[in-house]
Amino acid sequence: MKAACAHHWDTSSLARAFALLWYDSGLYSKLKQAFALFLTTPCADTVASESGLTPRVRDFVGSAIWQRYEQWRAYETILPGAADETLHQARIAGKRMRYTLEFFAEALGPNVNQVLARLVDLQECLGALQDVVTARAHVAALGLADDRGAQDYLAARDAEHAAYLVDLPRKWEKVASASYRRRLFELIVKL
Q1: Per-residue pLDDT reduced to its tens digit, 38-76
Q2: Distance between start and end Cα atoms, the chain
Q3: DSSP helix/strand/coil, 126
Q4: What CATH code is assigned to 56-189?
Q5: Nearest-CA neighbor of 164 among 135, 134, 123, 136?
């Protein structure tokens, strides 16, 4: 009888209870007020608003792009022989750079496609490497480690993985090269 009366708190019930407490605490009201101010006040909550200046895309996009590029290039020192997880993290850093470039593509002009194409090519290679890692994990999770068909599938994927690893340094160099950096810099300077 006790078991029938005991209240079972699942994750969604706890989340709902905490959300209700948060709404009732007044913090939600403060968040709404601050967000409304941010949405209706030009340059609200920015350094520029304190100085009275109006920020322009060309004044901050260059440093945003270059910062993403630096974060991605940091992986270059550990690339040879890197573990799959490290390659996946490099892919994520590349995606962040790519999305930053794509977000500002209109302001950067038509030459941004030259920079993006090489980055996308590298990302696809890194993504294919991660796909093999994911496939292996799914086969294991399904309990198919001893299944002959699954083993044949994984052997084929491992062969792809090896081929992508061979191709990776060439694709990486295209995005790490001095000519790539020069193109990226030229896009920023022309803003």
Answers
A1: 667 765 555 555 667 777 777 888 999 999 999 999 999
A2: 73
A3: helix
A4: 1.40.20.10
A5: 123
